[in-house]
Amino acid sequence: MKISTVFTFTVAAVATVNAESYSEPDQAIWIDRHNYFRTTGLPWSASNMRRIGWDADLATKAATTASKCSATTSTGVNAFQSSAKNASDAIDEAVQQWVVETAVSTIKTMAQPGSNGLDVGVGVYNSYSQVVWAKTTSVGCATASCSGGELVVCEYSPAGNDGKSSWYNHGPQASQCPDGTAGQGGLCIEEGNDANNQIAAIPAGELTYQVYPSFVADVQSILINSARDIANGSVPPTTEAKVLTTDSTSSTPTPKENQLNEDSAMKPPSSKTALQARGSHEDSLPTKEETSKTTKSPSESASPVTQDSNPGPGTVKASSDTGSTFQNEVKSPTTHEAKTSEGANTKEKTESLTTETAETAKTGMSTLGLVSMFILGIAAVAGIIMFVHYRVSTQRQHDIVLDGGIRR
User: Fold this and answer.
1) Higher pLDDT, 112 or 311
2) 122, 43 in Cβ contact below 8 A?
3) Which of 2, 63, 189, 272 is in Cβ range 3.0-4.6 Å of 15 for a Cys bridge?
4) In 386-405, which positions are buried (b, 16+ CB within 10 angstroms) versus exposed (e)?
5) Domain that residue 66 falls in
6) Is residue 348 part of a domain?
7) Residue span of the signal peptide, if any (predicted)?
């Protein structure tokens, strides 16, 4: 009985330690990660997205869950078995799997909303949908050192992934905030709440858009390709429901098993390398050659997106916030570009015709020259013959005169 009591006390102590294992800068990073993907990182802008704040009680609860070394992603819980050896490095490995990879594979299967007011994500639930669940306002995370590495767990409140609701409502950012909240920075914020205050300064180079510089461009590329498929008459993406398994009593997970019942779609090759940016504390972003990632795709505009407060039906609004900007639409060539293209084509055709005409003229002149030389040659021969004949006739006439007109 004493042994059992000591063991229980030890587990509780470990849980408390794990709850405090994240320093204030790490807590600030967790909050920055979540709120970035709830604004800038959304495929379609949200009109009712609440701001997430840190909750110490949820962090303690997450530590208790993590201490069992068997947690899985379920309703209101995200879990990830990291190969990292410390809690800080495990943060971005968890975010990479929960958000970056899962978002890219999930968005490919979703139909684009056709107008404002449309619910997004009904019937599709996974770790990414929990991160962008509009009604969730608090998160607390912890980690435990298990046999496979650091087990990262985040607890959410109110819990998302209820199996029936949408992730959020599509529309201009923070345009339909719940009562008691106000729009700020694309999120609905409860004014006067201490959870809105910055926990600590985020280290240089650790802002979310710096660690995952190509995420927005990757999402944009998916949306553009989907728009092209629709324009070309291809079958639009299906919205087959994919629901989480909520079993949280499984045995110690292996790294492979800790896909955490996520969708098993192919992972983009360019996403994982973004983790190399963590820990470097450099302000400059990785180059394309080093990470195969870019902060903007070729079609991405460098100028800010102008948010129309009353877009017409069928308009898909883009998410935008500090750090990156994009528009979810295929850009058609401008009038100037079209005229330039037509002028270039006309110039090429003119040059081609001129070349052909010159070659034809050269060939024609060569033939005419040969004929002219031949005719001149004949005329010269005829002239010589006539001249000789004339000389002979003149000589004969002269001889006849000398003979007295008598021809011999």
Assistant:
1) 112
2) no
3) 63
4) eeeeeeeeeeeeeeeeeeee
5) 2-331
6) no
7) 1-19
